[in-house]
Records
---
Amino acid sequence: MPTCNIISRTLTLSFLLTVTLLQSVADIRACSIKADEQIIFFPTTGRFNNEQKAWKVIIHGWIFEPETDSPTVKSLSNTFGRLINLSEDEIESKIFKERSRLFFVDNERGKKITVRIRNKIYQLKPSRPNGHFEYEVTVPLEPSTKQDGQNTSESIFFETVCDAGHKTYTGTARLINGPGISVISDIDDTIKISEVLDRKALIQNTFVKEFRDVPGMANLYRELERSGAVFHYVSASPWQLYPPLSKFMADR
């Protein structure tokens, strides 16, 4: 092989590596998450697009700055507790403080979130005034996957891309493709005792008491899952209650 061709190919490879490195650095710099900010990714779904032979994955999250130690937030939390007619003991309880704290955070607007899915970088749309961001990304099939999208893993996992000084936040999207059984289930008074028809009991079950199972439902849903059913949960609860609700469901 002529020497000039070797040099040319070497320079081309070096140029491509430099461009790739600069692009990676730009992707990391696009992350606008500060050290005192947090992200919660909500569980979503991915659907298979036959024309593109790729997954359409919805990424929905919330970015905010906690204010748990602020005297103002403590005062607002106490006022909130009194407005919903909780006693002073209930307002001072650990459960109420934990569940009410996410109602008094600094929502971050205009934040650009960058995530990595299967070694590919995706830039999401900026967060809205309420701190939420939601965007659909296109994820190509893996080389080992059938072209119809079947025999894939059950979920796609993603993570935030930032420099080493930031915490990494992760999320999942359940892949839904082809025929099957889906169970769409409510949460309140279906799998969790809420007593929605009794206002006082509902408030206490939501903000003060440990979440309790509706008897027999966990075993029933496990049986349905073993039969191949996929579950989708709906709730009228505010987004701020997602962390304790997700823990309650994960422990069952």
Note: The helical segments are 3-29, 71-83, 88-91, 94-100, 199-207, 217-226, 242-250.
---
Amino acid sequence: MTSQSLALRSMQLCLIVCAMPWLLTGQGAAARPAYPVAPRPLPETEELALARSAAPDEISSKADVYVLRGTTFVKAREGTNGCACLVSRDLHEGSRYPICYDQEGTRTSMLREMREASLRAGGMAEADVVRAITAAYAKGELHAPTKASMAYMMSPRQVLFSTPFAEGTRVGAWFPHVMITMLGVTPGQFGLAHDSKVDVISMDTEHQRFPELIVQVPKWADGTPVVAKRQ
């Protein structure tokens, strides 16, 4: 090997070795949140405010609010309108899913969401969470909505991931939206093609246990107009 080749090889090795600390501890590693990280709530006052931020004040100010203490959700504030709010999380570091449920969702879908987050907080892997929830429905411990129900996800502070599994990527706040659960409906019923390009409404029948019509809305729960997707 010539002296010129040796010099070039030394320079290449230096570039690799010198870059490693940055790749391992700097911006290179920061792009991918840690996984799995068991859900942990914020201090309770902050957690309450975050939960309430999921829906307009008209709804959330009169709703029950639940918070995670250890591995169990408890009612931290009593409401009067039959609705309820909480912050759910998956196993991605930094995930925050503030959700408020209407009366039917509070009776049904919210209990599933609570159980999922509780199992994750207890250290259960996502695949095992899926199996446990499937078994809970089979045993009658969890129940499907018996009529249309709505969940509000309109918090500007939401931090969403594309899937609760390890391959999920950070989406951020995406857009304020509501999710309407309706049994027995299909995308075709609404005229949506299987590869629909409509972006303001969509229907997830593959990843959700029950069909959910997802509808984007023009404002966050605090009344701020949507100007751009927030990360």
Note: The first strand starts at residue 64 and ends at 69.
---
Amino acid sequence: MDVLAIPVKKGESAKIFLEGGNAIRQYLKDLTTSDPSLDLNELVIRHKLTGKAGELLEIPITAGKLTSIYLVGIGEGARADLVKAGSAIGRKLRGSSKKCASLCGGKGTLTRAHALAMALSAYQFKISNSNAIKEAPTFTLIREFDVNQAQAMLAGTLLTRDLIHTPSNMKSPQWMATQVKKALGKFPATVTVHQGAKALSRFGGLTAVGNSSPKRPPAMIEIEYKPKRKRREIPHVVLVGKGIMFDTGGVSLKRPYENMVAMKSDMAGAAAIVGAIRAAVELDVECRITGLLMCAENLLSATSQRPSDVITHYDGQTVEVIDTDAEGRLVLADGLGYAIEKLNPDYLIDLATLTGAATLGLSRHYAAMYTRDENLAKKFSRAGEESGDRVWHMPLVDEYSESLRSNIADFKNIAEKPSVGGGSITAALFLEKFVGDSRWVHFDIAGVGRSDSDSGENPKGGTGFGVRLLTEWLQTL
């Protein structure tokens, strides 16, 4: 072991946090015995540590095989504090091959949260022939927690981040299909790719968006998982994800242009579903899962759809396209309609980086959650708090539906100005028109799906939001 992370708790005077059982006490005893001059609480006082969550002091040491110890502030020891502490450790060790043992943690999911924070904050992604990433730190937790569960969530989230961070000139709907098959190849899941004019003849939204890129055409990637052993009647969960590989806005070109730089992450919803299914299958969750990844590019070309076009979706409903930059809801609508007609879901969930309005309303700490099922909303809220992928239950305001009315089609794809505002709400109301009477939940992850900077557990770029949330919830079914 190269590094030992020791918790410092906030209080009237910061102190080494000695709670947590004999294993932690033995670690500290061995450390101080091998170096009698090492008085940990004296170090806290000397360096005026406050114990504030995320505070970190590195002390070089020669005790045993250690190269240094980290005195790490854990605040009051709450979940958010332990995440900040883990993020500080992980980011400190990012890019190294050091092995770190952390004495931080708490009961059950608190230690899991700390462990995941360390690993997630150490994430790197780089494309370079001369400077490839070869080193990554290794983390050990002394406190007990469900390691298999944490490892599955971590693997799923890292997979999702890799898919998001891949540049759009390297990824396409067909590339995505290949990556899904590779990621799930060793698991009991089947992958079917629906593409081509005949296969997508009823997918009016997906083709209207994806036909803007004839060399990288649209596809729906269908993933199916059925557990090998069933001890009871199991529910069927259908997950629908927005998979826009790059979004220029189409004819309704994004302005200012620098807003396009992050648009390789506009497939974060579909990527999160891949990661969540990978985690769920590894944990052998006892439910049937179908993932529908609605993949396309939204480009500006001679074959792009135009504002004022009318398209017919999978379920036969017609939509007047007012803004081609509101393309995510068009591809999702086909996936939702397909799920209702073909799959008979017990639960119908969609994830999408859908609206800037969700980011304005909830910033980058909560995803906007829409559903009329109060019990289901409460379960997802609990799963969000436990997993760290937090959600906020938003209202579906029926009075706003009038703003989607069209004179020449069943409805419009956005609320035209002057409108009621509430762009995230009206987008959810649009999607609700395609879900029938299913137990449906929509997650608008535009704010939480990507980060503008290295912050906490998240790197600049794709966060992998949704993997832990869905994995946590699926295990409760």
Note: The mean pLDDT is 93.
---
Amino acid sequence: GLGVRWCCRTLGLAIGATTAAFVYMLSPYLLPYISRTSVMLLPWAALGWMVGLAARAARRGGWHDVALFGLVVVTVGGVNATASVMVAPAPLLLILDLGLAGIVSWKRVASTVAKLGAVSLAASLWWMSMLSIQGSYGADVLSYSETLEATAATSTGPEVLRGLGCWLDYVRDEGRPTTSAAQMLQSNLPVMLAGFTLV
């Protein structure tokens, strides 16, 4: 939430910054991860910082904000490759938007994207190399733990609309939901109606 608040202020959206922070940090997306796999939320938590630093890097040039961006990437990367990759488009899209709006030159857009890409790659090489080794010589864990059918079956339109399409919300161990709060969001009518009303 603090990262989103800082990002909003960096982008000149100070009036709605606190509201944006609360909306972001209270998203149902957090639900399946908040208990047993909360470390996977690191890229999610860093997104505001990354977007704000990308904006500053594009506007101010130089390497200071790029280096800070790299420190954020190395801090939150490596837990889950998909989680890290999923946040990557946001800083890129913001920089492209700054170029389209004429706030920064296309030369600055290209140089900023190149710098952030190089720093991100360098900051991620440690976990990318380990992932490559595991993929070549380790067990194919994902083929039986996270199949496409298992992870996509719960992504129905209504559930995705209210932010609950993540398959981990529906996993059950010994007949009980692994994410206990998800049961109320799936079976309590007033809570379900509130979720749809909010959307």
Note: The chain has a mean pLDDT of 85.
